[in-house]
């Protein structure tokens, strides 16, 4: 068999190499750098092709494709969300993604994105909180202590200087795991005995639970004036975390309204309920927090541009780190129109 030609090869970042990349750069530094890439892309929002993600729902969960392009590069992510997966030793969310050159359509990067999604979601949360949370915030309540939770906590430390995390999960093992993992990272971590206890003294409340139904993680009386809510877990039709009355008291910031109105907390509101697009706050076109007493809500669902930014970041670090394999992904016949001839020549004499 001939060895693949250079045009056949696409850099592939495996889970093992992604973990090496994170440790090579340093987790908090990587979260800061991912945040910079996301901010850069959000500030040029109008250059991107945008569409709500394409979702395939089942009784157990959802499988989604998330495409976008900026004229130069095209990217997409495959991602699932299956809340009952953890019962069979699988994760709720797994993902991989690809970047391609718009000019030729040739892929330039294929990457694991389960870790990268946790990192980019955390970086996105911190970008939003940096723009919206009350100044001088020191304490975050982390409700839902699953796969995303440590990343969320460390991004708030890396970008906002949060130094206290108050944990709550209905599963004591998840809470213990999160507390254990966050030990030694320069945070004061307090496991709590209820969501109410966790939010005591917190200026930022992150909800990151997984349940395929309308859940009420926060009720109206739990949310005081001036807090910032970072709502991560409500990200599918029929899957929300906040009592609707909280939404009516909050200034709501979203990624891409066309997608968030289908998937986010605001699916509980009228389709014309006012929301502010986060990109316009980051670009300076809209105002973020207006008053110390205001409740701000980032109704996060995860948008394709964040994955595009994350893939762009990974691609920029490939050459310097060498942390990738070359994957024989694209058939590359000597004569581009002789795909069949290439197949025939590959036949072993005894086939
Ligand atoms: N917005 C985004 O960009 C984005 C990105 C990734 C994941 N998510 C969503 O975030 C959620 C969490 O993801 P994960 O990977 O951490 O899932 P996970 O299954 O690993 O963790 C979820 C945790 O929530 C806990 N939980 C469930 N109901 C609860 C309740 N009522 N109160 C307190 N805790 C509760 C569970 O015990 C579990 O520990 C999922 O719904 C996922 O779809 C959103």
UniProtKB/TrEMBL annotation:
Record-linked Gene3D superfamilies: NAD(P)-binding Rossmann-like Domain, ornithine cyclodeaminase, domain 1
Domain of life: Bacteria
InterPro entries listed in its UniProt record: NAD(P)-bd_dom_sf, ODC_Mu_crystall, ODC_N
Pfam families linked to this entry: OCD_Mu_crystall (PF02423)
Protein name stated in the entry: Ornithine cyclodeaminase
Organism: Poseidonocella pacifica
Organism lineage: Bacteria, Pseudomonadati, Pseudomonadota, Alphaproteobacteria, Rhodobacterales
